[in-house]
Inverse folding.
């Protein structure tokens, strides 16, 4: 990448962090637009500052989710999202079982298949990173799994809001559907924000509840694969590390503060944190888009991508039918 591309990256990132909607009352840099700009930039100039870009998208996303909690009422959110949480349990187990069986049928590397299933069932890259550490997965297995989820996340952010409008989904229905059917938290929150504030709040709540499944899945993986995965990787005698998504606990704490410590003096602070969180999410999606290159697409391969798409269709169509006909 040349000097011009590096400077342009910083300029675009700075623009993503400016709250034009607050300043001018309207903005055209929405979540899908930010992702698209990032994708175009990556294809034109390559991936700028790859290590920084990766850390930025990870930690800024976590901060954004915590910030959104300061705009949500805990009691109302739990009441409206209870059914979605129950459906989360069913969908996680179903996708994991279907993914492992499909991977065996398609003769995909067992760890890669398991990682893709984990990312689809729970919360994309975060689940893959946590489970991959327990599995002692190799770098290429992690790269392929993350690449697959990354590509589908980018697609989801563009197609889900228009599909929701075409199907006439309510804010509640779309928020539940997005949280169940879209992989990464970033794309879930982005799609929800593009659909409406109520959809964004509910989608964030259900997705964070879904992400907590990383913990039991990681321990299950450690028990189920255990010595086999360590022997295959040459890491006998070592134990995988279980990563706890601490930012989700902070998200819950932010909701508690907003619900029970909401004085008039603190209200402007809470509102400011929510505005900053929404704007930071725009920057996150730009960074995610800027991290996708043709090399990532080529590295994925056809069979893992087919497996991921089939699982995505399974969870997407299944959850949509449950929402439309069973009132989930």
């Amino acid at each position: 990448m040349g000097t011009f591309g590096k400077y342009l990256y910083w300029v675009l990132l700075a623009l993503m962090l400016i709250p034009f909607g607050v300043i001018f009352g309207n903005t055209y840099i929405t979540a899908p637009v930010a992702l698209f700009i990032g994708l175009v930039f990556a294809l034109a100039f390559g991936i700028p500052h790859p290590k920084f870009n990766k850390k930025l998208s990870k930690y800024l996303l976590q901060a954004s989710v915590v910030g959104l909690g300061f705009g949500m009422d805990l009691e109302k959110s739990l009441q409206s999202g209870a059914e979605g949480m129950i459906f989360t349990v069913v969908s996680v187990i179903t996708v994991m079982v279907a993914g492992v069986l499909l991977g065996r049928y398609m003769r995909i590397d067992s760890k890669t298949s398991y990682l893709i299933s984990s990312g689809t069932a729970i919360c994309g890259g975060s689940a893959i990173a946590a489970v991959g550490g327990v599995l002692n997965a190799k770098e290429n297995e992690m790269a392929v799994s993350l690449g697959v989820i990354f590509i589908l996340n980018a697609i989801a952010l563009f197609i889900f809001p228009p599909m929701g409008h075409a199907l006439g989904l309510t804010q509640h229905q779309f928020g539940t559907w997005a949280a169940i059917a879209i992989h990464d938290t970033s794309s879930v929150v982005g799609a929800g924000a593009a659909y409406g504030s109520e959809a964004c709040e509910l989608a964030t709540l259900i997705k964070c509840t879904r992400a907590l499944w990383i913990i039991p899945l990681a321990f299950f993986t450690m028990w189920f694969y255990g010595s086999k995965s360590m022997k295959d990787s040459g890491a006998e005698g070592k134990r995988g590390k279980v990563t706890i998504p601490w930012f989700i606990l902070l998200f819950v704490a932010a909701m508690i503060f907003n619900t029970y410590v909401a004085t008039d003096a603190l209200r402007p602070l809470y509102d400011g944190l929510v505005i900053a969180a929404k704007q930071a999410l725009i920057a996150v999606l730009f960074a995610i888009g800027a991290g996708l290159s043709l090399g990532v697409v080529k590295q994925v391969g056809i069979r893992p991508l087919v497996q991921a798409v089939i699982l995505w269709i399974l969870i997407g169509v299944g959850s949509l039918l449950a929402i439309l006909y069973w009132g989930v």
The chain is about 80% helix and 0% strand.
